[in-house]
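User: Could you check the structure of this?
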Amino acid sequence: MLDEIRARIADRVHRTPLVGSRTLSDRVGAPVYLKCENLQKTGSFKVRGALNRVAALTEDERARGVATISAGNHAQAVAWAATAAGVRSLVVMPERASPTKVRASRAYGAEVVLHDPSAAFRRAFELCEERGLTFVHPFDDEAVVAGHASCALEILEDLPETATIVVPVGGGGLASGIAAGTAAAAPRVDVWGVEPTGAAAMHRSLAEESPVHLEAVQTVADGLAAPMAGRINYEILRDHARGVALVSDEEIVEAMRLVLERTKFLVEPAGAAGVAALLHGRIPRVEGAVVVVLSGGNVDLERLAELLRPGGGAMAAGPVARGKPPAPTGRD
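Assistant: Sure, the predicted structure tokens are below.
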């Protein structure tokens, strides 16, 4: 099943490189490799799930078009995938979304509606109802998750000795896709998710044994700022991941700087979360080869300069990011 899905999107996505890092390996005490989804089409992993979801549309749904909500990466992916398939798309984005991601979404062919983030989901559903559009959920969708599982299959083929995969978590689409793919192809491999302390919906969901919705989120990593954990994503991670670790915004920015300095890969804050977790010992029992997914590289140049400035992460994070994060939540 997963092989069929991967074959469906294989000629439309990049098989992104898996690159070893001596610096990270020395710091962690285990071989560390980076899965460079920051080099994926549209600049993030999101295109994998979007392509698979658009491919699953009925002829009637294709004729009417699709809509979604996103801070940016999923918006770009849906816009690109829909346009490539001859399907019109609309994306609702937060009013303070990255200008770079807004411009890119429009350039890929989407109609962009900027809206109050507290009511953005509701507005997306209203527009779907008004215009007869099919909603493409950014993470809580089986076809989206299955598309993301292709990333896991590539990792396991390129590095069969993989022992641990570390994945950033927003709503949980990528992490659950990788967990599902790994469970099917190599169940011996540990999968860990990583969230910011200021947007820890999945961490709380695992602790409370039910998907939760946060009243507010605050993190420098806009790609990980989903206010809720998806039901499908929660269930997969509950059953097939080791757990979800937390990192502060300062730690994310520190990791972002290190990745840029030592590997020359530009990643957005969300893409650096897994590296932050490794550097600060948040992933227990790291033995054997570790793969960290650099989930995206879409960052405004103006924002990049602010983040890379000494103290930039602390200013962006605010009080919720300070202090030692709680222990990872997950299976023993």
